[in-house]
Amino acid sequence: MDSTQPLLFLDVDGPLNPWLAKPHRRPKGYTTLRMRPTGWEPPRPALRVWLNPDHGPLLMGLGFRLIWATTWKAEANTWIAPVLGLPELPALDWPRMHHQDPDGVHWKTRHLVAAAEGRPFAWVDDEIGARDHAWIARHHKGHALPHRVDPTKGLLPDDFATLRAWAAGQSGAGNWTAGR
Predict the structure, then answer these.
(1) Nearest Cα to 65, choosing from 106, 7, 107?
(2) Separation in Å, CA 33 to CA 3, 72, 115, 119, 153
(3) Phi, psi (degrees; rounded to nearest 5) at 99
């Protein structure tokens, strides 16, 4: 992938797996899978995951360098990427997960900004809030698009259009610290 592309930090549960959709009402276009990532070993029942195989090519065509930003960590390459037809992607390895941040931002926010190193990035997650937007605007030197996805619906055509347009607007910027 092109190292000048903006980064897309991609969460799994919510954006790709609409885990809050009505129980037993798989969204149209999604397939039901049973998975056993770390923490879901027997005797615990397999994890039910809904994925839409059409999302892989759509993600690859957005103009980003894709990076897993999920609690699945690198296991997303084993369980999620093959179903979507994605290549192996880099994955963030969280120093700590699910902790309370002193500023009230999501536990991923500070780490994502540090990992971006001033480069333009979009972050797709179902847990992004107003405090995350404000914190990123104050602490990230490059352009950023924190994009919340409804976990009852997952990524929709409008989400892909928003991300594609934003990535296209980053091309040719040349200066990763050009502002917000």
Answers:
(1) 7
(2) 33, 15, 31, 35, 17
(3) -95, 160
Is the N-terminal amide bond of 43 cis, ω within 30° of 0? yes
pLDDT digits (tens, 9 = 90+) for 34-78: 999 998 899 999 999 999 999 999 999 999 999 999 999 999 999
Q: What is the pLDDT of residues 96-145, one digit of tens each?
A: 756 677 777 878 999 999 999 999 999 999 999 999 999 999 999 999 99
Distance CA 117, CA 114 (A): 5
- Helix axes 109-116 and 130-139, enclosed angle (nearest 10): 30
Q: In the chain, where does DSSP find H-type helix? A: 55-60, 76-79, 81-84, 109-116, 130-139, 157-170
Residue 108 in tokens? 């991923």
Query: What are the two backbone dihedrals, phi and then psi, of residue 135, each rounded to the nearest 5 degrees?
Result: -65, -45
- Express as a percent the part of the chain with pLDDT over 90: 79
Contacts of 136 (CB under 8 A, 6+ apart): 109, 112, 113, 144, 146
